[in-house]
Write a structure and sequence with these properties.
The complex is a heterodimer. Chain A contains five helices and no strands. By secondary structure, chain A is mostly helical. Chain A has a single domain, classed as 3 helical TM bundles of succinate and fumarate reductases (Up-down Bundle), CATH 1.20.1300. In chain A, helix 2 packs across helix 4, helix 3 crosses helix 5 and helix 4 runs antiparallel to helix 5. Classes of the chains: A mainly alpha, B mainly alpha. At the A-B interface, helix 2, helix 3, helix 4 and helix 5 of A face helix 1, helix 2, helix 3 and helix 4 of B.
């Protein structure tokens, strides 16, 4: 017996209404983060012990700034997708679950914007 | 709809810990740890944007014993989550799902992440002339 409507079948999004999008984007960001995070570790190692001017100069190089921006976007997107699954799995009360998800997603937006603003303002020579 | 006879996920308190389950839990814990660790990344970048005195505060914290311990835990979380993440991606592609391969890649993940953590720290200390 099949209770699914032809339209629902054609859309292929299932009961979650978003199909496999969450799962898929988590994998795509993971794959992107493999080379980016290895690059990030190497860059950080080279920047260890930098004084203020060295650190500023280091981030304002165009190549470094662009990859840092990409790294920040993928990191926070991947992190909030992952934390979402953990909360959905372990938090029993629906009201706590929704509240925590709002806090996590809000924090991810706020922190990533702060980091992006910082990189751009350093790169454009502000502050 | 009947819901009482549905299969349950394994009860962590009753199951004997196995390498596969321990690594799975560690993947989540290190993921949470890395998410918390982004606060340090944001602090580092924002302190540089704000000016030298704020960067000096950051530098003071990250060079302290607490800061170094935090960074060390972060480094292991990173190498583990990276190695185990690659293991997960292989599973997603359908490779390595049988028991013996799951255990072999599990041990490999642990060894690689511990070795990489120490390599990163040794290189780090070498670069600042600490060794």
């Amino acid at each position: 017996m099949n209770l699914r409507s032809p339209l629902g079948k054609a859309r292929g999004l299932g009961t979650a209404k978003s199909g496999t999008n969450h799962w898929w984007v988590q994998r795509l960001t993971a794959i992107g983060l493999i080379p980016l995070s290895i690059w990030f570790i190497i860059e950080i190692l080279l920047a260890v012990g930098n004084d203020y001017n060295e650190a500023k100069e280091f981030i304002s190089q165009p190549f470094t700034a662009i990859l840092l921006i990409l790294f920040i976007v993928l990191t926070f997107h991947h992190a909030q997708l992952g934390l979402q699954v953990v909360v959905e799995d372990y938090v029993k009360r629906k009201s706590f679950e929704i509240g925590l998800l709002i806090v996590i997603k809000g924090a991810a937006i706020l922190l990533s914007l702060t980091a992006l603003f910082a990189v751009l303002s350093i790169a454009f020579g502000g502050a | 709809m009947r819901t009482e006879n549905r299969p349950l996920s394994p009860h962590l308190q009753i199951y004997k810990p196995q390498l596969t389950s321990v690594l799975s839990i560690m993947h989540r814990l290190t993921g949470i740890g890395l998410a918390v660790g982004t606060l340090i990344l944001v602090w580092w970048l924002f302190s540089i944007a704000l000016g030298p005195q704020y960067y000096n505060d950051f530098h003071w914290f990250i060079s302290s014993i607490v800061g170094r311990l935090f960074l060390f835990a972060w480094t292991f979380s990173f190498t583990f989550h990276l190695a185990n993440g690659i293991r997960h991606l292989c599973w997603d592609a359908g490779w390595g799902l049988d028991i013996s391969k799951a255990y072999k890649t599990g041990w490999l993940t642990l060894i690689v992440s511990v070795v990489l953590t120490f390599v990163i720290w040794i290189v780090g200390y070498y670069l600042i002339g600490g060794i």
